[in-house]
């Protein structure tokens, strides 16, 4: 009786190809509401349709690499970069809605609620902004000798930022 040997051949078929998304490395990506947003060291963000990978918009405004992005089901998009600037965008039209300046250097993380934008930077500050007016409401310094905040999450029942570190919180 002969033995059956499993096949190690794999057949792949490319459904369709797309042009390169960016000219430099992609630093972050987000998916929401049928859209994919990529952010890059080339200072841009791109919005693609998830269903067919069609590039809808290239968003320009950052003066340095884009380090973080946030997008929700309402198609609100926020981006932060090495330039210390946060931009709010309308992901339906690709237009710039507002910008916020308050960090001295790279923004590591950001998130939004219906009323606020919360950002954390390498400058050891967590900033809370009014989403409609782009005014800085609070600047919360980090404790010295503490690891940088790398991710922010909002607890919606109390509307206060919750810091998550990859090491012990000081």
UniProtKB/TrEMBL annotation:
Gene Ontology biological process terms from the UniProt entry: regulation of cholesterol biosynthetic process; SREBP signaling pathway
Membrane topology: Multi-pass membrane protein
Organism placement in taxonomy: Eukaryota, Metazoa, Chordata, Craniata, Vertebrata
Organism the protein comes from: Eptatretus burgeri (Inshore hagfish)
Molecular-function GO term, any one: sterol binding
SMART domains recorded: WD40 (SM00320)
One GO term describing the cellular component: endoplasmic reticulum membrane
Gene3D superfamilies: YVTN repeat-like/Quinoprotein amine dehydrogenase
Any Pfam family the entry gives: Beta-prop_SCAP
Protein name per its UniProtKB record: SCAP beta-propeller domain-containing protein
WD-type repeats, residues: 59-99, 100-139
Predominant location: endoplasmic reticulum
Subcellular location: Endoplasmic reticulum membrane
InterPro entries: Beta-prop_SCAP, SCAP, WD40/YVTN_repeat-like_dom_sf, WD40_repeat_dom_sf, WD40_rpt
Domain SCAP beta-propeller: start-end pairs: 10-146
Keywords: Endoplasmic reticulum, Glycoprotein, Membrane, Transmembrane, Transmembrane helix, WD repeat
């Amino acid at each position: 009786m002969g033995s059956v040997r499993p096949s190690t051949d794999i057949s792949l078929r490319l459904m369709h190809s797309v042009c390169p998304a960016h000219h430099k490395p992609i630093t972050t990506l987000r998916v929401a509401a049928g859209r994919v947003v990529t952010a890059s060291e080339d200072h841009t963000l791109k919005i693609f349709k998830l269903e067919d990978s069609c590039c809808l918009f290239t968003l320009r405004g950052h003066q340095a690499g884009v380090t973080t992005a946030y997008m929700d089901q309402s198609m609100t998009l926020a981006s932060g970069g090495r330039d210390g600037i946060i931009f709010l965008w309308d992901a339906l039209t690709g237009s710039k809605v507002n910008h916020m300046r308050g960090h001295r250097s790279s923004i590591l993380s950001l998130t939004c609620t219906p009323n606020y934008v919360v950002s954390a930077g390498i400058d050891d500050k967590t900033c809370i902004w009014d989403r409609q007016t782009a005014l800085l409401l609070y600047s919360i310094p980090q404790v010295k000798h503490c690891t940088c905040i790398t991710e922010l999450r909002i607890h919606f029942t109390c509307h206060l930022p919750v810091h998550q570190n990859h090491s012990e919180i000081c």
